[in-house]
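=== RUN LOG ===
request id: a7f3
mode: sequence -> structure
chains: 1
length: 468
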Amino acid sequence: MAMVKVVVLGGGISGLATAYAIQEMAKEAGLKIELTVIEKEKSLGGKIQSYREDGFLYEGGPSGFLDSKPETLKLASDVGLQVLPSTAAAKKRFIYFGGRLRRVPEGPAEFIRSDIMTIPGKLRVLLEPFTKPSKSEDETVAEFGRRHLGREAQERLISAMIVGIFAGSSEKLSLKSSFPVMAELESEGGGSLIKAMFKRMKDAKKAGKTKMSASPSGGLTSFEGGMADIIHSIEQGLDAGFATGKKVSSLKISGSGGYEIYLEGEKTPIEADVVVAALPAYASAEILGGLDKGFEEVLTKIPYSPAAVVCLGYREEDLPNRLEGYGFLIPPVEGRNILGCRWDSSTFEGRAPPGHMLLEVIVGGAIQPELAALEQDLVLSVVKEELKAILDIEKEPVFSKVIWHKKAIPQYVVGHSKVLKKLDSVIENYPGLFITGNAYRGIGINDCTKNALLTSGKVIDFLKEKRL
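=== RESULT ===
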């Protein structure tokens, strides 16, 4: 069997996880492949970047992933990486509402005692079993939340959760695209999530399962050297060529039926039998649009929210309160100038020097995109004013760093499912071309590693079928 040339565009977690899965699946199938990963930036990782400076270990993007799904854990194990669980304190999460931090309840008893919602708001939640199925083909997360749990729950809890996950607005995001499990539960329960959960627990008991959860669970997990450890470990585990600092300008069909990949500033194209575009949607639109305008028309319909990550290091003695927990989120209704704050050194060991704390504040998002574009001095001023108002921090940090993302997180707005359906119809005309990444069917790291496996399986099936 001839050597097959497989090129992965994009060296973020999606691209690297896909490349690694293709490599391992090809070995099992007895396929001979030549792998190449092309990345526009000089370093791999995409949004996953970990930095060490002045004794602080801070993240430019995601701080971790939940250990409740197997794909990322297995990938880490396969590349020889040990995970770092979060501390017990990380289970404490807070919402800033009504001028102060309030702990997010972890169970029914805590919810009853919590002061996040009023008594009428809590009573409204109890009406959830009587919820009727939605008549909307694609409703927003906010509409779904109000219909099932009431206005208060949506305004104070759900909207804050959406800020934390998407840096987005619950009034714009599609429920069925952003949280497909919730849509499935509603269908199973005849409209009610609670009825569906009880049904699943009953079915699990009959099947002999001791544990069953209808909602996302698990502990936050990272690595000793930060999230970038998994990027470096996958890179070391890949028998591939890496072209970093190389921007793809266009993609064309070759005379042999494969593809020609043209890089900026280079005349000779890279030949490929298979191409996997593991890029942000806007980058894929730019590259694939020359191949077919349909790609550009579809992919440009996926918007992104901007964000600035502001990392601040403080002496513990300069903090008026002991910060124990994961951090806090702020519902948009509060009108604050930050989205939330992670207490990284309380969440993971080794994030700050002894006697210090590391905080990471998120600014901008789809809620206040203009704030994510502020210059360093201005954004630092905004953040310090907010931390003074919320946490009573008046002393200056001993360390500060700002990381900007003009297009940070894809937004699965209403109509996203139609975009994906159209994308599938376009790409089926191009055998050997595949698309993956967090712009389509899940934005989290666990989603990226799961979709990497699915995409890799399609690549291997294609190669077997074509006998390349």
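=== NOTES ===
The chain has a mean pLDDT of 94.
The CA atoms of residues 124 and 150 lie 6 Å apart.
=== END ===
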